Amino acid sequence: MDSWNSPAWPGLRIRPQLSKEKIEGCHICTSVTPGEPQVLLGKDKAFTYDFVFDLDTWQEQIYTTCVGKLIEGCFEGYNATVLAYGQTGAGKTYTMGTGFDMNISEDEQGIIPRAIGHLFSGIEERKRAAQSQGMAAPEFKVSAQFLELYNEEILDLFDSARDPDARHRKSNIKIHEDASGSIYTTGVTSRLISSQDELIQCLKQGALSRTTASTQMNVQSSRSHAIFTIHLCQMRVCTRPELVNGEVTSLLDGTQPTTEYETLTAKFHFVDLAGSERLKRTGATGERAKEGISINCGLLALGNVISALGDQSKKVVHVPYRDSKLTRLLQDSLGGNSQTIMIACVSPSDRDFMETLNTLKYANRARNIKNKVVVNQDKTSQQISALRAEIARLQMELMEYKAGKRVIGEDGSEGYSDLFRENAMLQKENSALRMRVKAMQEAIDAINSRVTHLMSQEANLMLAKAGDGNEAIGALIQNYIREIEELRTKLLESESMNESLRRSLSRVSARPPYSMSSSPAPGLAGLCSPAAPVETEASDVLRRAKQDLERLKKKERRQRRKR
Ligand code: ADP
Ligand code: MG
Question: How far is the CA of 117 from the centre of ligand 2 (A)?
Answer without folding.
Answer: 22
